[in-house]
Amino acid sequence: MDINQLRTFVTVVREGSITRASEILYRSQPAISAHIKSMEDSLEVKLFERNSRGMSVTRSGSRLLVVAEKLLEQHQRFLEEASRVRGSLTGELRIGAARCSCRDTVRRLLTELYSRFPELEVKLDRGPSAGVLSGIRNGYLDAGFYVEPEEEQTDLTAIEITRCSVYLAGAPQYAERLRGGDLNVLQDVPCICPPDQSCYGRIADRFFAEHDFRPRRIIHVDDEAVTRKLIADGFGIGVIHAAAQPGNGISVLSEVRKSVRILCGYLAERANDPVVGVIRSILDGGEDALAPVRPKSKFGKLPSLVGGVR
């Protein structure tokens, strides 16, 4: 049994699903299943019950989970101490980045790590914010960039990278229809939204509920570039984050959320980890203290809604 199998076991317990665990650990579902089977065979203990809702841990599995989590924590501490003994960073560093992450910051971090630590193998994993958060918690990722969730994250320490706004946008003809200010005049128009469980998806759901807006057809797209192209082509209205000037055939219909923070986070218990210290130093430009980064908008103030929401 190796450390990766333990990590797989803990992740499947937390997520209750092989499918979700495979997404978070970036392994195929057969590989996840093989890890579980190998553990059950070698331990001669049934770890999970399989049911219609996914995987539920057995009583025996729950007892072993406590020990597995401690072993993963000790393994991490062992690696941290080895880094201190060497006096330099080697091995593998995994960083997660949600699709909405500030690309320039991610690129700067990777460039600095590559140039300053030639013996360090850096891997960047792209995925949704929820996947990045889970990866940090289960130890698969050392740190990650993500959209700040609405729930408090007491087990993480985060550095603010930037802020952006979230808008409901559409082609100019939809802005004309919205002159009266009632969003429901657009309820028959296809609405392109991020996935329900994504951070932006939940922000959109709350906005729709607050304005009693119920689009008859919602299309979930987890790629803003695709969403913007569909909006510009007049396919429908959609939720975008204003990391760039809407323009190009896209009009802002309403402000969904004025300010959303993009963060880089890591487990609070790893604050003294040399790897985490290096990441903090690079993101801060080499300073000892980390100051919040709040760049000014490049596109100026955008209208909240044509005519105002009723």
Write up this protein:
It is built from 10 helices and 10 strands. Among the domains are: 1-84, Arc Repressor Mutant, subunit A; 163-260, 3-Layer(aba) Sandwich (D-Maltodextrin-Binding Protein, domain 2), CATH 3.40.190.10. Helix 5 crosses helix 10 (274-283). The chain has an 8-stranded mixed sheet with strand order 4-3-5-10-6-9-7-8, with helices on both faces. Strands 1-2 form a two-stranded antiparallel sheet. By secondary structure, the chain is an alpha/beta fold. The protein has helices at residues 3-15, 18-25, 29-43, 59-86, 103-116, 129-137, 172-177, 199-210, 224-232, 274-283; strands at 48-51, 54-57, 91-98, 120-127, 143-147, 156-170, 191-193, 218-220, 237-241, 251-267. Helices cover 40% and strands 23% of the residues.
